[in-house]
Fold these 3 entries.
Entry 1:
Amino acid sequence: MSGELPAALRSAIEALAAGHPGRALAEAATKLSADYRSGRGTRLAQPVDLAAYAVARMPATYAAIRAVLDEVAERTAFAPASLIDAGCGPGTASWAALDTFDGIEAATLVDAHDGMIGLARTLAGQAPVLAQARFTKASLDRSLGEAGSADLVVAGYALNELPAAEVGAAALRLYRASTGLTVIVEPGTPQGFAVVASARAALITAGARIIAPCPHDGSCPLAAPDWCHFSARLPRLKAHKAAKGADVPFEDERYAYVAVAGPGIAIHPAEARVLRPPKASKPETTFRLCTVDGLVDRSVPVRDKSLSRLTRHTGWGDAFPTET
């Protein structure tokens, strides 16, 4: 299953969970989930709250960020050697980036929350590059602190915690700190997409070029109440199932994102992106696509053996195959 945590990180999170009574961890996880669904933001005052975040949210955000970075890696040959994880939380984006780009040799993790920085440090000990990482405290609404610059700058589930009016400026801060790629990932909710849309508009104005998911740098063709988001499936940790009292061994994480490149970076965006789960019927399968010409519904007849074969495994979030 795609999006599965690295073994070392999975073991570290399970060990972290084992350090807290099951009931306390379950209560903290329940509160965390309620806060997340309501858009209230996370309140991580106690060590058990941080452990609950690592158990209940880190695997899902990892799966989403890893899916995004895999797409970015497919759309450019640029190989980053350095990373800034902005609004790092427990270091989720750093782990995903290291798994995607094996040439990363240096990482800087930035967060405004002392507890999250401490948790990120603890988990970082399980990865050689992260064990040598630099940690800096800073609030993304003002600066990146002493982070400097890096080939790859990632903000995972971070800009949604800022006032809406400050998202564009924060996105520009990230872009200016990048010498190659800038990636912003947010929850796949209308509110999360609004954050991504604001960041996207600011980045395009600054001259950034869209790598994904959009096949163009023009205005987004979607209008409310519609929004652009995708889904990643991931296996649940044993500790997560215990904390939630869940029997289902997997969960689906919805996410929205934008990835851009700076000047001089070669990219090849998708010609079209599948925006919804395809609708299959007996005579055909219909795909809702975002293209350079706007939204398009493309139907692939079953009788078209060549195109049917080409699109057989094409799903929500994928690039629509180029006919050859």
Note: Residues 7-261 form a domain with the Rossmann fold fold (CATH 3.40.50.150).
Entry 2:
Amino acid sequence: MATLLAHIQIKPGKEAKWESIMRDMVAQTFGTEEGVIRYEYWKGQEPLIYYCLLSFRDKWAFYHHQMSDHHEGHDFADVLAGIRLEYVDPVEGAGGGLPHTADPALPDDADEAMKTAQERFPLDIPAWWSARA
């Protein structure tokens, strides 16, 4: 399973365009992807700051999402000032029923899209998580 919290900063004046893209992304993601569990966007308290909670059945479903036509088809460069993806893991008994984030090895027969996604979005699982499972 792969769960992430995206910390997003939008360029000034691009809020409406960003929110339109996000509505389309959520609709397309839930309409075409089988491995999505949660995919939610929120506005932060600070101007131009947004957050996204993404949770997928496994990292392959996350990589499929990242490499999908609907994800690749938007002009994110026009609206994004910055983004930081943070992998997160649920606290046992307090994580909304989400399974733990895991980083299985890339299969030998992985296609080019999965290899590219692995390079762009490697999972970073801190060692201290295993002691808190």
Note: The chain has one domain: 2-132.
Entry 3:
Amino acid sequence: MPSLRALVLNCTLKPSPAPSSAELLGREVLAALADHDVDGEMVRVVDHDVRFGVSTDEGDGDGWPAIRAKIMDAHILVIATPIWLGQPSSVCKMVLERLDAELSETDAEGRLRTFGRVAAVAVVGNEDGAHHVTAEVLQALNDVGFSIAANASTYWVGEAMGKTDYADAGPKPDTTGSATKTLAANTAHLARLVADRPYPPA
């Protein structure tokens, strides 16, 4: 059984050490993945000087190459994003734009380097839009070569126009916890399958 690593990219707009609901849910995903012998870490993207662009390195101290190296060292990538105006955060969209560069990065047999990696998404917000955000993020990740397991998403959405954050929501709903456990089980399972039997060249 291969040893697996996961990376959660926290796409909150808030720099550390500000509390982040996306970080909380992302860490719950990491804890659930640990139950399946997956080691992991989280990177809060806004803490790094990631430049806008669609290349692997925008130069001049761009913070993306170091994050990209962590992505390439991991078997599982989890995007954790808040909802703003029914959309993924601007930080999340920037991450997806930077991942667009992977369409030009191939191995010796012509396969995208992301083909050996599995992705999932965790979404939090105080308004509706979790399904829309999940659809946008998972489709983009699949477009750039990541595999997606069944039920590879988890989310929590508070009352519309409310002010309660995930951290302050009291006992967490069974639905979110159950979704997180399923995400972890299925994502770890698929990651092991792909690691053991890589996709063939086209």
Note: The mean pLDDT is 94.
